[in-house]
Amino acid sequence: MQPRIIQLAGLGFTIAYAALIVWIYATEPRTFKEVTTGVEVAAGTYEVNQEKFNSALNFFRHEQFRAARVEWQQADPAQRDARTQFYIAYSFYREGWGRIYFDQELFKQGVEAVNRAIALSSTNTLTIDDPDLQMHTAAELKAELEQGLERNWSDVNPLKVLRTRK
Amino acid sequence: MPQTNRSRNRVLVDFVVLPFIFLTVALLGGLRIGAENGAFIFIAPPLVTLLLATLLMLLLVRGGLLKLHHWVGSDFPPLTNVAHVWMFITIFFASAQAFNTVLPERGLLHWLFSFFFLWTLWNNQFSSFDARRLLRSLTVLFGTAFVLKHMLLASLYSPEGGWLKRMAGTLLQGVALGTLDTPTFAASTGYIAFFTLALYVAGLILLAFSVNDDTIVVTDHQLLED
Question: Alpha-carbon distance A26 to B59, whole Å?
């Protein structure tokens, strides 16, 4: 092999290795699993675990929201799938919704998840075609969650108990 | 033919092996393993380690381990210059991370260790060194710091209570060690640090061979010219 080729290959290989090191220090993965997931994301080969996703959806439809979130988090450990993040946000909404009051902590986490979903979707109108849901876009869900976090005089309206969960 | 192989091997060491070794040191130098859950903790090099690495680079130049005029110059092809500058960069970050490995992460001990490193490197700037002496001196410097941090201090702050903690407890009854606060890591951190420092010193030894080889080539040329 020509020395010039070795020089070029060595330079290319070590620069790629240095970039990997910088990426590791920037993202601070805590386990080997996180490292491999991150590399998959960077290489564009990352995919959601469909089996876990379906299992989570099943829990969600049976109103077992916490169990659903655990499964979704395992299905999308890198939080890179807009659809999964949308469902996670929806589960926070449904669990936090109450006739008398909304659970502020759950709604805040819901807003964070829906913001992730919006950021991840290539177009800004993320739409989920699921007949079990009454809100199909991330924008609708975000508005509903943010409205739940606002404090105003309508909170003391007794007719509030008649509202329905979406 | 042996001359061709020699030159190929030389290129392989200079442009692949050495940068790879020094980059691995840069990767592992800031790695700690959490004591509670065994999670990776990556600690970026503190500012003081960059200062220490700068002083060490100057020392490497003075000691003849880095011969800038032999490796970078207007007579060389641009790719060779770029590759050599890249190697210097990897040595710099490996040096910073080697210091990061043996410096306590925070507290008074971090500053005490930093001060002693600065003192030693600054003093060494005014001593006469050759590559061999410098290598020995650096091995002793990093070896001592490794023993102090990963054996003595790790034992002192071990949650299970190491031998030194029991001894210190007996000797310093009633004296608080709060000001010497330092985080505790899993035992594997010490093994990683040992491997990192061994790799760093091995890289410097390989660099010294590479430099000596360079000198031989130059001498041959001179002999031919004579």
Answer: 30
Whether residue B16 and residue A17 make contact (CB cut-off 8 A), yes or no, is no
Q: Are residues A7 and B80, on separate chains, in Cβ contact within 8 Å?
A: yes
Q: What class has domain A50-162? A: mainly alpha
Every domain of chain A and the residues it spans:
3-43, 50-162
- Chain B residue numbers with beta carbons less than 8 Å from the beta carbon of A9 are 16
Q: Which residues of A touch B8 (CB under 8 A)?
A: 1, 3, 6
Along the 226 residues of chain B, how does pLDDT read in single tens digits?
566 777 788 888 888 999 999 999 999 999 999 888 888 999 999 999 999 999 999 999 988 888 888 888 888 888 888 988 999 999 999 999 999 999 988 888 889 899 999 999 998 888 887 888 888 889 999 999 999 888 888 877 766 666 666 666 666 555 555 555 667 788 899 999 999 999 999 999 998 887 666 543 434 444 344 3
Q: Where are the domains of chain B?
A: 2-225
Q: Which residues in A lie closer than 8 A to residue B44 (C-beta atoms)?
A: 25
| DSSP string for residues in A6-56 | HHHHHHHHHHHHHHHHHHHHHH--SSHHHHHHHHHHHHT-----HHHHHHH
Q: How far is CA B56 from CA A66, B49, B103, B117, B194, in A?
A: 54, 10, 15, 10, 20
